[in-house]
Q: What sequence folds into this?
């Protein structure tokens, strides 16, 4: 029986797994991929032998390179460590270079925008202000604790007269206001507290609340509406001994060295609820801000610090501190609008302190010794400034010959914008300042002088004559 007949009779079964079948069906199916033999029959599939892999030296070379690199690294590391240790034993210093240390530590450590030494870093840590990895202040509790005794709450009672229902009669109403203040100095008789002029303006009575909860009556010492600053005084004899021990004079910092992004901490009597603390940063410097006086409608324009620390009604007159607990500004105003958030302003300490000192020390000069300026002028209001494109201030209509103003170089047509360190917009403000100046006092006067259709700023020193 030939092979074909054996398969048909079922005596022998083909290797069906070689043809791609999964079970034997009793028949035979052709595999299209299987080559046909010479006798016309298909044979079981056999895997052709794989060609022998050629030998290559790359693997051996790579292994040798890795081994050599490991050996070299081990030797170099050991040599460097030994050199560093030997250098340290001889000099007592670490051989690691400064640049290496900076690379390891991420560079210089910055606190309040300045590179700190080890001593100042220790002092900073003692202040209680901790910094997170991102550089923001995370804890100002110690700064607040050391600053709170320097901040007070101020309550005012003002009386306002309004027309009554009957002809020719007026009625008087009392209104209560609140604000904050900073203890700036004291002498043998008084404690002096700085605040905003708009906090105490028109007040009939003043009450100061200290950090320990004690309240005392205060009196107006001096005001400067042009800078929105004022000073109130408290008699030391009216303060309890326990309170005297708990309060302290604030430490002022230099606002001229501030940088945008530095930490700012605001403390004040927000909404009249008592002292509260908010934090943020210095958002901008030298922002020109114009504030309208609600009493008479006059405007005040000054260059202020902008901060993201929350400033609310009652914070006015309080302290804006840096991370060291130094007063860098006196909180003054907040930009209030529903679409705006985090825009509060403070009077820079560099601008405020000279005015505060004058408010504390100056006394009205008696008429026989009072100063004489030697000019006549008219006020340039905001509307006139807009209409005629002139700076707002005092337009000089006449300069008296032989006066201090004439000798300093003031001329008719000049517009005075600053007098003795204050922004001025009226002759009344100049006269108010002059009553504290004795004859012979040298005063810095800033003017705007017209030239070729524009105004140029000049600063002149005027020696006041005798009235």
A:
């Amino acid at each position: 029986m030939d092979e074909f007949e054996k398969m048909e009779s079922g005596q022998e079964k083909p290797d069906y797994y070689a043809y791609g079948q999964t079970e034997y069906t009793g028949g035979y199916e052709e595999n299209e991929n299987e080559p046909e033999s010479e006798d016309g029959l298909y044979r079981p599939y056999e895997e052709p032998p794989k060609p022998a892999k050629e030998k290559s030296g790359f693997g051996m070379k790579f292994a040798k390179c890795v081994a050599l690199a490991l050996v070299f690294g081990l030797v170099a590391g050991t040599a460097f460590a030994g050199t560093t240790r030997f250098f340290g034993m001889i000099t007592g210093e670490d051989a690691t270079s400064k640049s290496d240390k900076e690379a390891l530590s991420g560079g210089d450590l910055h606190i309040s925008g300045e590179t700190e030494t080890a001593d100042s870093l220790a002092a900073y840590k003692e202040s209680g202000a901790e910094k997170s990895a991102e550089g923001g202040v995370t804890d100002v509790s110690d700064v607040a604790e050391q600053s709170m005794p320097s901040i007070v709450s101020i309550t005012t009672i003002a009386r306002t007269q309004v027309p009554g229902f009957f002809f020719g009669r007026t009625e008087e109403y009392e209104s209560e206001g609140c604000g904050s203040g900073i203890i700036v100095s004291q002498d043998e008789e008084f404690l002096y507290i700085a605040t905003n002029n708009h906090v105490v303006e028109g007040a009939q009575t003043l009450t100061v609340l200290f950090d320990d909860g004690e309240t005392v009556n205060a009196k107006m010492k001096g005001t400067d509406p042009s800078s929105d600053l004022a000073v109130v005084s408290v008699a030391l004899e009216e303060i309890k001994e326990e309170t005297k021990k708990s309060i302290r004079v604030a430490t002022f910092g230099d606002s001229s060295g501030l940088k945008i992004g530095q930490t700012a901490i605001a403390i004040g009597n927000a909404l009249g609820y008592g002292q509260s603390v908010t934090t943020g940063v210095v958002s901008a410097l030298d922002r020109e801000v114009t504030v309208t006086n609600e009493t008479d409608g006059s405007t005040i324009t000054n260059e202020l610090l902008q901060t993201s620390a929350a400033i609310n009604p009652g914070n006015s007159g309080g302290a804006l501190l840096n991370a060291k607990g130094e007063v860098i500004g006196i909180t003054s105003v907040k930009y209030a609008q529903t679409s705006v958030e985090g825009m509060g302003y403070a009077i820079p300490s560099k601008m405020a302190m000279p005015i505060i000192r004058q408010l504390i020390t100056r006394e009205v000069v008696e008429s026989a010794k009072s100063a004489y300026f030697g000019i006549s002028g008219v006020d340039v209001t905001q509307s006139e400034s807009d209409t005629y494109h002139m700076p707002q201030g005092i337009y000089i209509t006449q300069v008296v010959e032989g006066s201090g103003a004439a000798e300093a170089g003031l001329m008719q047509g000049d517009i005075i914008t600053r007098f003795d360190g204050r922004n001025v917009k009226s002759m009344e403000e100049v006269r108010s300042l002059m009553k504290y100046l004795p004859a012979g006092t040298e005063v810095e006067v800033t003017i705007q002088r017209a030239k070729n259709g524009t105004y140029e700023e000049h600063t002149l020193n005027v020696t006041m004559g005798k009235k």
Q: What stands out?
A: The longest strand covers residues 170-186.
